From TrEMBL:
<keyword id="KW-0157">Chromophore</keyword>
<dbReference type="InterPro" id="IPR014729">
    <property type="entry name" value="Rossmann-like_a/b/a_fold"/>
</dbReference>
<keyword id="KW-0456">Lyase</keyword>
<feature type="domain" description="Photolyase/cryptochrome alpha/beta">
    <location>
        <begin position="15"/>
        <end position="144"/>
    </location>
</feature>
<feature type="binding site">
    <location>
        <position position="241"/>
    </location>
    <ligand>
        <name>FAD</name>
    </ligand>
</feature>
<keyword id="KW-0274">FAD</keyword>
<dbReference type="InterPro" id="IPR036134">
    <property type="entry name" value="Crypto/Photolyase_FAD-like_sf"/>
</dbReference>
<dbReference type="GO" id="GO:0009416">
    <property type="term" value="P:response to light stimulus"/>
</dbReference>
<dbReference type="InterPro" id="IPR002081">
    <property type="entry name" value="Cryptochrome/DNA_photolyase_1"/>
</dbReference>
<dbReference type="InterPro" id="IPR006050">
    <property type="entry name" value="DNA_photolyase_N"/>
</dbReference>
<dbReference type="Pfam" id="PF00875">
    <property type="entry name" value="DNA_photolyase"/>
</dbReference>
<comment type="similarity">
    <text>Belongs to the DNA photolyase family.</text>
</comment>
<dbReference type="GO" id="GO:0003904">
    <property type="term" value="F:deoxyribodipyrimidine photo-lyase activity"/>
</dbReference>
<dbReference type="GO" id="GO:0003677">
    <property type="term" value="F:DNA binding"/>
</dbReference>
<keyword id="KW-0285">Flavoprotein</keyword>
<dbReference type="InterPro" id="IPR018394">
    <property type="entry name" value="DNA_photolyase_1_CS_C"/>
</dbReference>
<feature type="binding site">
    <location>
        <begin position="291"/>
        <end position="298"/>
    </location>
    <ligand>
        <name>FAD</name>
    </ligand>
</feature>
Length: 499
C-alpha cells in the first residue's frame, strides 16, 4: 500500500524574510529560497563568511576560493532576478540575529545541515531569533531523504546499504515524482528584495579574508555554472558509468562531488536526471543513482549515530591498538607525501595534494593502505582527507574511512585486505595514472610500474629508477603487513567474544 506523502507545509504569510545560505550556493531549485519567496513579500539572502571555520583553515585553501567564486556568481544571478546577496564576515550566531533584527524580518529560512557542529550552531541561532520573536525555518535540501524518512519495517535506522537502497527506491516510487520535484525560484522572484544600500558592502577579497590565491580556478569551474557544465559533460557519459567508473586514468565519474558539497548543483536535479535514464534502461545511470543513495545513506548514519565522529561505528573496534610513536609518524608522513614505495598509493596521494580530488577507487586503496598496511588509526587519514579534499563532507568521508578500515557500518570485513599491486594491475593496467602522478617511474614497463622493487635491477637501471634514491623502497612488506592487521583485529574480536 502506498505510504501517504507528507503534506506541503503552509506557512503563515509574513512581510519580510531572510534566507541564510550555507551549503546551497545556487539560485535555482532551492528549497529554502523557494519557501521564503512563497511566504514573504520581501526576501533577502545572506551568506556569512564564518570566522569560526575560516580561522582553522590553511592560508591557501581551494575550498575557500571555490566558495568565494560561487558567492560572486550567486550574487550576480540574484541581482539579475531583482535581489542580491548580503555578505557578512563573523560568527553566524551573532551575525544572523543581528542582521535579522536590522532588516526587521519575521522569519529566517535555511537548508538543513546535518553535521553536529552545524546543528549546535543552528540551535543557538534559533534560540537568539526566538528571543527576538523571529522564526527559524529549516528545510530539507541536501539530500533526497534525510534523518528518519527511510527506516526499516521495524521503524529502526538501516545500517546495511542494500536494504536501505531498496527502501529508498521504494519510497521514491511511492512518491510518484514528488521527492525529485524542483523548488523553482524564478517564478517567485518578484519577492526578492534588492540589497539595501547600507547592507551592500560587497564581497571581501580573498586577501582581506586572510587567504592566498590557489590553483583552484585553473582546475575547477566553480559556482553553479561550473556544476551545470560538469553535469552536461557527464550526461554524455552516464550510460557508461558502470564500466568506466573504476579506472582512474579515464574520465569515468562525474566529478560533481565538490558541487554537491557546496550546493552549486541540486541533488534533486541529479537524482531526477539519473532516474529518468534508469527508467530508459541505462545500467550506468542505475549504478550512479546508487552512488547518490550512498550519499544519503551516510547522512542518515551520521544523523542516527553521531558518535561515528571520533568513534568506530562498531564499538568493539574502539579497542583496536593502532600503531603509534615515531615509526608510525614516519609512516604517516610517507603516506601523506605520496612516498610509500607503492606506486598506486603514491599516485593517489599526489593526486589529492596536487588537485584536491582523489578518484573513488583510489580513496578506497589509499584508506585501506593506511589502516591495513601501515596499521595507522583511520582517524588520522580521515583528518588528512578532511583538510585536503575539495569535496570534503563529514558524513561521506567518515563513512568511507570506516568502510575501508572495517570499523564502520556495512564495511568490508577486516580480513579483506586490498592488495595494492593487484588493485593497481586491475584498475590502472597500463600504469597511465601512475605515470601521470609518479613520473619518476614512467620509464618502467606496464608490469614493473606496479611494483618497482620486483623489477630486475637492469630494468630499473634502464628506466632511471634507483630505489631509495629516485623512488622509495616499499615502506612495509605486503605479506607481513597483512599478517599484522589480521592479528590486530583478531585480538579485539577475542576480547569481545569473551565478554
Ligand atoms: C576513504 C573515503 C573518503 C571519502 N570522502 C568523501 C568526502 O569527503 N566527500 C565526498 O563527497 N565523498 C567522499 N567519498 C566518496 C567518493 O569517493 C566520492 O564521493 C567520489 O569519489 C567523488 O567523485 P565524483 O563526484 O566524480 O563521484 P561519482 O562517482 O560521479 O558519484 C556521484 C556522487 O555520488 C556521491 N558518492 C559517490 N560515492 C559515494 C560514497 N562512497 N559515499 C558517499 N557518497 C558517494 C558523491 O556525492 C558523488 O559526487 C569518500 C570515499 C572514501 C572511500
Amino acid at each position: 500500500m502506498p505510504t501517504r506523502l507528507p503534506p506541503s507545509p503552509t506557512l503563515d504569510p509574513v512581510d519580510r524574510a531572510l534566507v541564510w545560505l550555507r551549503r546551497d550556493l545556487r539560485a535555482d531549485d532551492h528549497a529554502a529560497l523557494h519557501r521564503a519567496l512563497r511566504q514573504a513579500r520581501q526576501v533577502w539572502c545572506v551568506f556569512i563568511l564564518d570566522t569560526t571555520i575560516l580561522t582553522g583553515l590553511p592560508q591557501a585553501d581551494r575550498r575557500v576560493e571555490f566558495i568565494w567564486h560561487a558567492l560572486h556568481e550567486l550574487d550576480r544571478r540574484l541581482r539579475a532576478l531583482g535581489g542580491g546577496l548580503i555578505v557578512r564576515q563573523g560568527d553566524p550566531r551573532e551575525e544572523i540575529p543581528r542582521l535579522a533584527k536590522a532588516l526587521h524580518v519575521q522569519a529566517v529560512h535555511v537548508a538543513r545541515d546535518h553535521e553536529p557542529a552545524a546543528i549546535a550552531r543552528d540551535a543557538k541561532v534559533r534560540g537568539a531569533l526566538a528571543d527576538a520573536g523571529i522564526s527559524f525555518l529549516s528545510w530539507k535540501d541536501q539530500t533526497i531523504f534525510e534523518t528518519d524518512e527511510v527506516l526499516t519495517a521495524a521503524g529502526t535506522p538501516f545500517s546495511v546499504f542494500t536494504p536501505y537502497r531498496n527502501a529508498w527506491l521504494k519510497k521514491l516510487a511511492e512518491g510518484g515524482g514528488f521527492y525529485l520535484k524542483a523548488y523553482p525560484v524564478e517564478r517567485h522572484a518578484r519577492h526578492l528584495a534588492p540589497v539595501p544600500t547600507d547592507f551592500d558592502l560587497g564581497i571581501p577579497t580573498l586577501e582581506a579574508l586572510g587567504f592566498a590565491p590557489t590553483d583552484m580556478a585553473a582546475r575547477l569551474h566553480p559556482g553553479a555554472s561550473g556544476g551545470e557544465h560538469l553535469l552536461l559533460d557527464f550526461l554524455e557519459r552516464i550510460d557508461r558509468y558502470d564500466s568506466s567508473r573504476d579506472f582512474p586514468a579515464i574520465k569515468g565519474p562525474s566529478y560533481l562531488s565538490v558541487h554537491l558539497r557546496f550546493g552549486t548543483v541540486s541533488i534533486r536535479q541529479l537524482a531526477r536526471l539519473a532516474h529518468e535514464r534508469v527508467t530508459a534502461g541505462s545500467r550506468g545511470a542505475e549504478v550512479w543513482l546508487s552512488e547518490l543513495i550512498w550519499r544519503d545513506f551516510y547522512f542518515q548514519i551520521l544523523h542516527h549515530h553521531p558518535r561515528v565522529v571520533g568513534h568506530c561505528f562498531k564499538p568493539e573496534y574502539d579497542a583496536i591498538r593502532w600503531e603509534h610513536g615515531k615509526a608510525a609518524d614516519a609512516l604517516f608522513e610517507a603516506w601523506c607525501a605520496g612516498q610509500t614505495g607503492y606506486p598506486i598509493v603514491d599516485a593517489a596521494m599526489r593526486q589529492l595534494a596536487q588537485t584536491g580530488y582523489m578518484h573513488n577507487r583510489l580513496r578506497m586503496i589509499a584508506a585501506s593502505f593506511l589502516t591495513k598496511h601501515l596499521g595507522l588509526d583511520w582517524r588520522r587519514g580521515e583528518a588528512w582527507f578532511a583538510l585536503h579534499l575539495n569535496d570534503f563532507d563529514l558524513a561521506a568521508n567518515n563513512g568511507g574511512w570506516q568502510w575501508a578500515a572495517s570499523t564502520g557500518c556495512d564495511a568490508q570485513p577486516y580480513f579483506r585486505i586490498f592488495n595494492p599491486m593487484t588493485q593497481s594491475r586491475k584498475f590502472d593496467a597500463e600504469g597511465r595514472f601512475i605515470r601521470r602522478y609518479v613520473p619518476e617511474l614512467a620509464g618502467l614497463d606496464d608490469d614493473a610500474i606496479h611494483a618497482p622493487w620486483q623489477a630486475r635491477p637492469m630494468e630499473r637501471l634502464a628506466a632511471g629508477v634507483e630505489l631509495g634514491r629516485t623512488y622509495p623502497q616499499p615502506v612495509v612488506d605486503h605479506d607481513e603487513a597483512r599478517a599484522r592487521t589480521l592479528a590486530r583485529f583478531e585480538a579485539v574480536k577475542k576480547v569481545a567474544a569473551r565478554r
